[in-house]
Design brief:
Blueprint: E1 11-17, H1 24-27, E2 28-35, E3 43-52, H2 55-62, E4 81-88, E5 100-103, E6 117-121, E7 125-127, H3 134-137, H4 144-154, E8 161-163, H5 167-172, E9 177-179, H6 190-194, E10 200-203, H7 208-216, E11 226-229, H8 242-260, E12 267-270, H9 280-289, H10 307-318, E13 327-329, H11 350-361
Parallel strand pairs: 8-9, 10-11, 11-12
Antiparallel strand pairs: 1-2, 3-4, 3-6, 3-13, 4-5, 5-7
Helix pairs in contact: 4-11
C-alpha cells in the first residue's frame, strides 16, 4: 500500500501492551484492527518503516518511572523512535507526502512506534537520508553509544578504553583497549592504571559506584577531568512518586554543582541524553554518509513485525545484552532495536554525544 492509500484504511496492525510488568510474553500482543491515529495540526502522519527499541521502552512497560505512565492508560502501543514515509502534514509543513523521515518520541515516554502508522509533532521529525536504508535510519535517533566512540576518535581522542564482551566490535569502532567486565574490574585494569590522568570518563550503565571508583583510583585528571553520567546513580532505580524522584535526582544535581566550583576535583556532569534539537538527526546522517560514523545493528536484527519478533526484541532489551541496535521493520515487519552494547545500555541520544564531543574539545 502506498502512502497515498491510507485514506482507504481505517485500521492498522500494531503491538499492544496490556499492563505493567516484566512478563513480556503475557503483556505484549499483536492487534490487527487498531484505529489509525488522527493527525492533529502541527503533526506529521507517518507510515512506519521501522521502529527502534531502547531501554526506556522496557522501563515504561515495567512501570519503573511514574512520570512515564501511558497518558491514555492501557492498552498502549510501545516503541518510539521510527523511520518511514510521510502520509500527511500541514499545508505549511516542510514535509510532503512520500518524504522519507525519521522521528523521535515525545518526552517523557516512548509511545506509539510499534504500529503501521504514527502521528507525531513536526518538531520531532527530520528528513531521512536517501542514501541510508530506512531500517537503519530508525536507529539514528538513539544509537549514541557506538557514535560516542567513533566521534570522539574523529575529534582527536588519543586513547579510548571501553568495557564490553564484544572486543572485535569495540576495536573496529575506535577503542584502543577493550576490558571484558565479566573477567575483571575495569578500574583495576593494568593498562588503565598505567594510563591515569584521563581527560574524560563516560558512565553509561553503572551509576554512583563508577564515580566513586574513578575518584578512588584517580583515573581522571584532578584539574580539568570530567566524569559524564548518562545514567542515574542507580541505573535500575524505580521512581513511583515525586519524593522518590527528588531523592534520585537532587544528589546528582548537587554533585554536579559542587564539583563545578572546586577545580581541584574532577567535574561531575549528568546528562539525560534526551534533548534532541532540530537538525541533529540530519547532522548524524551526514556523518554516516561520509563514513565518519557507521551504524551497528545487533546480529538478531532486523526482527519481523510479528508478536514473536517484537517479544524477542523486548527480551534482549530487558536482559541488557544487545550488541548494537536490535531492529524489526514495520512494513510487514518491525524494528525493535535495543540500543547500545551490553556494557553501556544507557546512552541514548545524539545530543549527549554532541555535548560529550564539545566537552572533550575544550
Amino acid at each position: 500500500m502506498s502512502v497515498h492509500d491510507v485514506s482507504k484504511k481505517a485500521t492498522m496492525k500494531c503491538i499492544l501492551a496490556s499492563a505493567h510488568g516484566k512478563d513480556i510474553d503475557s503483556l505484549l500482543s499483536m492487534c490487527d484492527n487498531y484505529p489509525i491515529p488522527k493527525r492533529k495540526k502541527g503533526q506529521v502522519l507517518i507510515k512506519v518503516s521501522a521502529c527502534a527499541l531502547a531501554p526506556g521502552d522496557v522501563r515504561v512497560l515495567a512501570g519503573h518511572i511514574f512520570i512515564q505512565e501511558p497518558p491514555g492508560g492501557f492498552p498502549y502501543i510501545p516503541g518510539g523512535d521510527v523511520s518511514g514515509r510521510v502520509v500527511e502534514a500541514d499545508a505549511t509543513s516542510r514535509f510532503k507526502a512520500g518524504d522519507p523521515v525519521v522521528a523521535m518520541f515525545e518526552l517523557p515516554r516512548p509511545l506509539n512506534g510499534l504500529a503501521e502508522f504514527l502521528s507525531v509533532k513536526e518538531s520531532l521529525v527530520e528528513l531521512a537520508s536517501t542514501n541510508i536504508p530506512l531500517v537503519e535510519s530508525s536507529t539514528l535517533t538513539s544509537s549514541a553509544m557506538t557514535a560516542a566512540k567513533q566521534l570522539l576518535k574523529a575529534r582527536g581522542a588519543s586513547f579510548i578504553a571501553t568495557t564490553s564482551t564484544q572486543r572485535d566490535l569495540m576495536l573496529s569502532l575506535g577503542a584502543d583497549v577493550v576490558i571484558n567486565y565479566q573477567d575483571e574490574n575495569w578500574f583495576e585494569n593494568s593498562e588503565l592504571q598505567n594510563s591515569k590522568e584521563f581527560d574524560l570518563v563516560i558512565d553509561l550503565a553503572v551509576g554512583y559506584e563508577a564515580w566513586q571508583k574513578v575518584r578512588q583510583c584517580q583515573l581522571l585528571k584532578s584539574s580539568g577531568g570530567k566524569f559524564i553520567a548518562i545514567t542515574m546513580d542507580n541505573a535500575l532505580a524505580e521512581v513511583h512518586n515525586w519524593w522518590q524522584l527528588t531523592t534520585v535526582f537532587v544528589p546528582m544535581q548537587w554533585r554536579e554543582l559542587w564539583t563545578k566550583f572546586f577545580p581541584s576535583v574532577p567535574q561531575y556532569i549528568w546528562h539525560n541524553g534526551l534533548d534532541i534539537q532540530p537538525g541533529d538527526l540530519e547532522k548524524v546522517s551526514r556523518l554516516v554518509e561520509d563514513g565518519t560514523m557507521k551504524i551497528v545493528l545487533d546480529p538478531i536484527s532486523p526482527l519481523p513485525f510479528s508478536e514473536k519478533g517484537v517479544k524477542q526484541g523486548f527480551t534482549v532489551m530487558q536482559k541488557r545484552c544487545a550488541h548494537g541496535k536490535v531492529t524489526s521493520p514495520v512494513v510487514g515487519r518491525l524494528l525493535a532495536p535495543p540500543k547500545c552494547s551490553d556494557a553501556v545500555p544507557e546512552l541514548y541520544q545524539l545530543r549527549a554525544v554532541e555535548k560529550i564531543c564539545k566537552i572533550f574539545a575544550k
